[in-house]
Design brief:
Blueprint (H helix, E strand, L loop, with lengths): L3 E5 L15 H11 L3 E5 L4 H7 L8 E4 L4 E3 L4 E4 L4 H11 L6 E5 L4 E3 L4 H8 L5 E3 L3 H4 L6 E5 L4 H6 L2 H5 L4 E4 L4 E5 L5 H12 L6 E5 L5 H5 L3 E4 L5 H6 L2 E2 L7 H12 L1
Parallel strand pairs: 1-2, 1-12, 2-3, 7-8, 12-13, 13-14
Antiparallel strand pairs: 3-4, 4-5, 6-7, 6-9, 9-11, 10-11
Amino acid sequence: MIKLIASDIDGTLVPDGTDRIDPRMMDVVSRLKEKGIIFAGASGRQFLSMKRLFNPVWQDIYYITDNGSILRSATTIMKKHVIPRNLLMELIHDAKMLPDCDIMLCGEDAAYCEEYSEMFFWLRDSYKFNINVLGDFETHLTDDIVKMSIYQKDHAEETVSHWFAPKWKDQFNIASAGTMWIDIVEPDADKGSSLRELQKQLGISPEETMVFGDNINDLGMLAAAGESYAIGSARDEVKNAAKHVAPPLSECGETTVLLELLETL
């Protein structure tokens, strides 16, 4: 029997960079809880953004945030991965050499950028991030950082593939989080490792876990679950890795699958 459901957010539950979630999901989460099934959101987003997205039921779910760097309940951080400061500064230096890119750094409860930009306003106004403009990172950053994101409007994955990703791939987990985003976290931090930690702490097996995803950064999570779904609009790599393919996001595919699950209980 399924006891834990973990879901990616952007591209799976909402269109990228929006808060347009199927309102039925709030009732679904509540009904799952009544049946003893735990729901966890898993995203590159920060906790505050996810909390706002799930506002009616935010206290009832678990959170895998910052692409797996932080695992938390509504009130408690259960595990956190911090990027060492010396390596972070080297990453920032190299990322600034990439053409037409912007950089976001994520701490425990806030995100940071160096200047007001298209990325800043999108994160603040659409993702609903708590994001601050610091000026020069090397001079003004004091927070511990759990994730660095590289933003480029059109082809972020292609841009980092030339030399940045090959240089750092053995020291960090570098994954696409959509056409515009590359997320960089500690090597043992991803959605899959955080999901396995949550399973361990809750005493739930992979066979009792169901997951939903659409992008490369969801592959580890799919591998950690007995029942895995790629949303119908997912990348081919995710569809090939998943056990099932749900209807696309435009048809509220995850909601459909979960409503069918509830009918069987």
